[in-house]
Amino acid sequence: METAADNHSPSPSSSSPSSSSSDVDVTPRGATSAVRRALQLIQSDDSDSKLQAAKEIRRLTKTSQRCRQLLADAVIPLVSMLRVDSHESHHESALLALLNLAVKDEKNKISILEAGALDPVISFLQSENLNLQEYATAALLTLSASVNNKPIIGASDAIPQLVDILRHGSRQAKVDSVMALSNLSTHTDNLTIIFEASPISSIVSLLKTSKKSSKTAEKCCSLIESLVGFDKGRTALTAEEGGVLAVVEVLENGTLQAREHAVGALLTMCESDRCKFREPILREGVVPGLLELTVQGTPKSQTKAQTLLRLLRETPYPRSELQDDTLENIVCNIISQIDGDDQSSKAKKMLAEMVQVSMEQSLRHLQQRALVCTPTDLPISNSCTSEVSLK
User: How far is CA 12 from CA 93, 129, 165, 173, in A?
Assistant: First the structure.
């Protein structure tokens, strides 16, 4: 996901950087001469000239991959603007120019960290200037999309600061923070650091206030799926009011990837301690969503949903014995533990209705979700990363 810096207004209540994006490479008219002038100005000793250059670089790199490449030599002087004790407007302009240089450009992402941008960017996360705080969070989101940068960012103080933003930042900063943490979590060492910062309560809080079909909800569930791999992570999710319910709601209404993360999180919990987590999961009405997922989900989601349904049944048979059970019998057994009379017919009716509805709506659902997730996105890889849109 990529956003242009110009989509951020100067106000802290600016629109989401992930709300608008452009995948079209548009090089501004007269860009070659403008690039030369910008490179001359950014090398100047005059601070006003540098500021003018940073704003021009931001404009030129908003939609042009060619300009990002031509302006790669501006990285070092722009980073030097971050490190100088100057007016915040200089920091903002330099940061936004660097952010646009980094979008969709792996070489620039790496160069920005090599030039020493990480420390000042992390310091801006603690700024009282909410604009600067948001821009710094967005910068870390984009820089964390680079595989080479993940361990470097993780070894710094960035992760605890991002979790703090997730707790106390603006709405947009929280969204960018959770996406940056999701990017960083694909590096094994970083996941432990994220877990030790105790982010689950804040992730759940953001998830509960997000549209369940949004990219934000998808990244929240991606993180939750990873964090419930820790025993204390599972306990933290169930202890959080509405935590399991929020995951179940994503399982029912999320994107294809988000639903896969959601069922994966619940399955990890149930497999780790069936006796402990079976009731909290069943209590949130997960069965209808799981039934739909067995028909409409990705191949991984279908398998995980079927396995979770087997684990949710009352009889604690060894898993090898469960494999031969029909989905109908499993649902009959689950519902018999929840309601009272005539459970077998209810289970059969529910299963028949879910399958019928699924078959009738599957084409429409898949077409709608194709707008968010193309077939090449499936199955989900832990290497998936996000970037903010061009600013």
Answer: 15, 9, 14, 10
Are the beta carbons of 227 and 194 closer than 8 angstroms?
Answer: yes
With a CB cutoff of 8 Å and minimum separation 6, the contacts of 103 are 2, 3, 4, 61, 68, 142, 387, 388, 389, 390
At 80 the three-state DSSP class reads helix
Return the amino acid letter for 266: L
Tens-place pLDDT, residues 230-275: 999 999 999 999 999 999 999 999 999 999 999 999 999 999 999 9
Amino acid residing at 197: A
Report phi then psi at 103, rounded to 5.
-65, 125
What's the pLDDT tens digit per position in 137-148? Answer: 999 999 999 999
- Whether 53 and 38 have beta carbons less than 8 Å apart is answered as yes
Residue at 377: amino acid letter: D
pLDDT score, position 165: 98
| Residue 61 CB contacts under 8 Å (≥ 6 apart), including other chains | 67, 68, 71, 97, 100, 101, 103, 390
Q: Which amino acid is at 34?
A: A
- Closest listed residue to residue 98, CA positions, set 35, 142, 64: 142
For the chain, helix (H) and strand (E) counts, in that order, are: 23, 0
Is 180 exposed, middle or buried, given 0-12, 13-18 or 19+ CB atoms closer than 10 A?
buried
pLDDT digits (tens, 9 = 90+) for 21-79: 444 566 666 788 999 999 999 999 999 999 999 999 999 999 999 999 999 999 999 99
Q: Is the peptide bond before 318 cis (omega within 30 degrees of 0)?
A: no
- Confirm if 194 and 184 have CB atoms less than 8 A apart: yes
Give me the residues of the chain with pLDDT under 50, please. 1-23, 319-324, 339-344, 346-347, 358, 361-363, 373-383
Closest C-alpha to 267, from 242, 248, 239:
248
Q: Write down the pLDDT at residue 354.
A: 54
Q: End-to-end CA distance of the chain, in Å?
A: 12
CB 266 within 8 A of CB 239: no
Q: What is the spatial distance between Cα 329 and Cα 306, in angstroms, rounded to a whole number?
A: 12
Calpha distance 227→182 (Å, rounded): 11
| Residue keyed to tokens 């090398």 | 43
Contact partners, residue 150, CB within 8 Å, separation at least 6: 144, 183, 184, 186, 187, 190
Cβ atoms 381, 319 nearer than 8 A: no
